TrEMBL record:
Record bears the keyword Transport: yes
Entry similarity comment: Belongs to the bacterial solute-binding protein 1 family.
Coiled-coil region(s): none
Matches recorded under SUPFAM superfamilies: Periplasmic binding protein-like II (SSF53850)
UniProt xrefs under InterPro entries: Bact_solute-bd_prot1 (IPR050490), SBP (IPR006059)
Signal peptide start and end residues: 1-33
Species annotation: Nocardioides marmotae
Cross-referenced Pfam families: SBP_bac_1
Lineage of the organism: Bacteria, Bacillati, Actinomycetota, Actinomycetes, Propionibacteriales
Highest rank taxon of the organism: Bacteria
Protein name: Extracellular solute-binding protein
Record's keyword terms, sorted: Signal, Transport
Amino acid sequence: MRRGSPPAAPRRRRLTGGLAAAACAAAILTACSGDDGGKPTFNWYINPDGQETLAAIAEQCSTDEYDIEIQLLPTSATDQRTQLARRLAAEDSSTNLMSLDPVFVPEFANAGWLAPFEGKLAEEVVDDDVLAGPATTVEWEGEVVAAPQWANTQVLWYRKSLAEAAGLDMSKPVTWAQVIDAAASQDATVGVQADRYEAYVVWINSLIQGAGGAIVEKTEDGRDAEVTLDSPAGEAAAGVIKQLVDSGATQPGLSTSNEGSSLGAMYADDSPGEFMVNWTFAYKNYVDTVGQPGGPADEEALEDLGWARYPRTVEDEESKPPVGGIDIGVGAFTEDVELAQEAAICVTSPEAQTQLAVTDGLMPTRGSVYDSDELTEAYPEDLLALFRESIDEGGPRPQSAYYSQISSAVQSVWHSPTRVDPDSTPRESAEFLRAVLDGKALL
């Protein structure tokens, strides 16, 4: 940890409503503060989501004792992990703050790459205000190893006129089967993420959890975790994918579909619209594109946008919406760990979370922020409640130090979605994943 006695707490600058307009917002790859007097500069490696706002937060959280400088990571979560892992494996002291996909937190913590928050700092990072879903993602082996910054979840977005024409009552929980049948009956589509990448595993995981199962269990056993893909829940998940493939309601390029590819189908010309599972940013996307190509034609068309809880895999089980977001880790090889952790707490403050939600659609990890005036003005009340409920009650992906191997093994067997078969895919993927974890097969 730190050498010598702890310094006084840094004098933080308060975040303001003008955050996004801060001077360093246009200078993503440059330092927000100059090098004066040899005070430390903490590199903060961020993913591309909300980068202008994050740059402004870095400026506002820089103090008389340290500066925060933004460094941009690749778009892909897998590539982000690879770049950071290479630096940390080399014990790089300049990798200070990191925006981590929650699924990589256990791996990094298990490798000794994250500096745990201790004492009052740990209590400040995870207090009673933090929602259950995000709180779980920052704890590893009884320690708080990261600070939750923003949370993400998926909901079912749809055109109200489409659901009405299909006779689907959206005031009640709906199943994937009902959604697919409704779309097919109206020559509409269902938007998903099914390219060979992490978001496809997000879908598969939520389908399996929604049927009461899991990809793996006993993840605390590391490579000896119990592989539970080959189960009735795995078959139910594969059945949903096969039903969509066979329904005629798939969108063009299903096997390469991603978060952005289906956004335009909601308001495509001469189309009844779509049902789409997607992250919280979708609302801001449509609000900000009224009258533009791919967006609602006008405010009346925007009013036709509906939202509901993530569909159920099976009728008698509550759905398990995906839980994602970003946690801020502090590199274990940072020269002044406690000061860097103070910086991490600042960039995850309620004020920072408010701005990320209002400006970029990246939702808070703290319950109190959902009740703020800024959020209640920016979002419909029932949508905020849906986001909060989905994040609090959703299902995380497996928390394992070997998650990267788990994800890649699942992708390799379940992709392409056009070849998924309930009778074989769960069994084949379970066998392959077991072999990968045992070191008997290569990815």
